[in-house]
Amino acid sequence: MSRRAFRAMGTEIELLVDADDAERTLDAAEAEFHRLEALLSRFRPDSELSRLNEAGSLEAGPDLCRVLGLALVARERTGGRFDPTVHDAVVAAGYDRSFEHVPADADGGTAVRRTPAAHDDVVVDGSAVRLTGVRLDLGGIGKGYAAERTAEILAAAGPCLVNAGGDIATRGGAWTVGVETAAEPLTLELSGASGLATSGRDRRRWRRDGRELHHLIDPRTGAPSESDLLRVTVVAPDAVEAEIAAKSLFLAGAEAAAAEADEAGIPSVLVTADGRTVVAGGLA
Questions:
Q1: 129 pLDDT above the threshold of 90
Q2: Is residue 48 exposed (0-12), middle (13-18) or buried (19+ Cβ within 10 Å)?
Q3: Mean pLDDT, to the nearest integer, of 46-55?
Q4: Gap between the Cα atoms of 194 and 236, Å rounded
Q5: Taking the C-alpha atoms of 268, 275, 140 and 167 in order, what is their torsion angle to the nearest 10 degrees?
Q6: CB atoms < 10 A from the CB of 209, how many?
Q7: Which CA distances in Å does 155 have to 3, 15, 114, 158, 193?
Q8: SS3 helix, strand, coil % of the chain, rounded to 5?
Q9: What is the mean pLDDT of the chain?
């Protein structure tokens, strides 16, 4: 087993490939992660995403266009629960820099008044992208996309797993993954090409004016979600789909999330704020 660990996109990245002497492949995979971070980070003023947010329009490269296309389809499919246009709301709440530099406690922190998403607030026409009245945050879906792209590179050397701060992409083999619950950890097995992601308000949180805030913005209110869920973990065919589903189910709340996961067959582990663990979507 060959392993590589490094930091990117504000989190710890771990690459595993079931092959000996895979250093060149690991080098290429790590370089791809850093390349995508340089394109998609909202914290780098020279990234494509930052330049788009600043100018309101851009002739974008293929990766930004793909990630944005996936995000817009997800917004439509989830009825707006997954929404890439919450950038200003995240910043207003206090998450205005890479998380390791966000003050744990300070003054300020507000909600952004949100209006319903318009079908033309983000327009992608080939490589031309135009924003009207919004700016974009592609942090979660960008991380899932990077995990998938990196897994594709590693798969040339053998069965592999990419763990991007809890967003997981696999290719080939069988991989055992531990999932936190309200009590004992739950063990899941990922096989073939699959993805896993967790959305929760128990990690990236801070205080402003004595109020506890977190990064999961409810697009309906422009404020950190008041969901009765603490954390949602989802298994999906890939890390991008897992990221979308985890965020959407978290915002739905415990009862609706369990019903939605069961109906759609989305394997999910829901941890509620009052300390219950609910498995749904076919998990037992």
A1: yes
A2: buried
A3: 97
A4: 6
A5: -60
A6: 12
A7: 13, 11, 42, 5, 10
A8: 35, 30, 35
A9: 91
DSSP 8-class letter at 111: P
Q: Which of 25-29, 69-73, 162-166, 213-217 is least confident? A: 213-217
Q: What is the mean pLDDT of residues 114-119?
A: 62
Please report, for the chain, the start and end positions of each structural domain, with discontinuous segments joined by +: 2-280
Confidence (pLDDT) at 112: 66
pLDDT in tens, 254-280: 999 999 999 999 999 999 999 999 999
| CA–CA separation, 58 and 55 (whole Å) | 7
CA distance 204 to 107: 17
Residue whose tokens read 């949602």:
232
Residues in the chain: 284
Q: What are phi and psi of 30, to 5 degrees?
A: -65, -40
Query: Where is average pLDDT lowest: 101-115, 128-142, 158-172, 194-208?
Result: 101-115
Phi and psi for 210 in degrees, rounded to 5?
A: 80, 0
* Residue-level pLDDT at 104: 78
pLDDT (average), residues 137-157: 96
Q: Tell me the CB-side half-sphere exposure of residue 22, using CA atoms within 13 A.
A: 23
What phi-psi label fits residue 56: left (phi over 0), alpha (psi between -120 and 50 degrees) or beta?
Answer: left
Q: Summarize the confidence of residues 32-56 as an average pLDDT.
A: 97
Rounded Cα gap, residues 110 and 121, in angstroms? 23
Q: CATH number of 2-280: 1.10.1040.10, 3.30.230.10, 3.10.520.10, 3.30.1330.10? A: 3.10.520.10
End-to-end CA distance of the chain: 31
With CA atoms as reference, report the closest residue to 35 among 63, 58, 65, 16.
Answer: 63
